[in-house]
Amino acid sequence: MKKVYPDAKSALADVLKDGMLVHAGGFGLCGIPEVLILAIRDSGVKNLTVVSNNAGVDGAGLGLLLETRQIKKMISSYVGENKLFAQQYLAGELEIEFNPQGTLAERIRAGGAGIPAFFTRTGAGTDIAKGKEEREFDGETYIMERGIFADLAIVHAWKADTEGNLVYRKTARNFNPMMATAAKITIAEVENLVEPGNIDPDTIITPGVYVQRIVHVPNAVKHIEQRTVRKRIMA
Fold it and tell me: What is the distance between the alpha carbons of residues 174 and 63, in angstroms, rounded to a whole number?
């Protein structure tokens, strides 16, 4: 099966539908599948539920889908860099399901591993626990969290071969690997695309069996979420 598509639009063409549950990889603006996000925006699909560590920033990442009101609900752990996100939430225009960051990561990993639910101490006794099943283990209270398996996962990788074996770099390894395993269809945008056999098997993080489609993005734009520089010392 040929997995490489000429562009993001064609890779998503027969996949997108209103009301989908979508995993969007990355951490902040690092390792986000921006080209695929742009193609989703241009498709006009709406009422999406998006699982992402954060919601991008104003004008970049998932912030682009918030601008066009294509996201109905966010399942996230951190949204502090996006003013539009806050405005839509406070106006009752956007649903939010907050998760502790480790819990969110494990919910996605569990979904990919075929685990429907698990128990964790994180959030027990707080608002996070409201409405969730509680159980006691070894004298401690745990709450049940559900695994998340999406209709579509969009991820960003540093390198891939044409069979879909993926390698991530540094911070971009956050959330992308587990999301790639936890969806009916996984589409990866990759910076460097090589033929099979050109990646050391020991460096492969996501095996190609999890990836159905690939888009080569050799000149990926890499945004800086918060630019911090040292003050110049004047002589």
Answer: 19
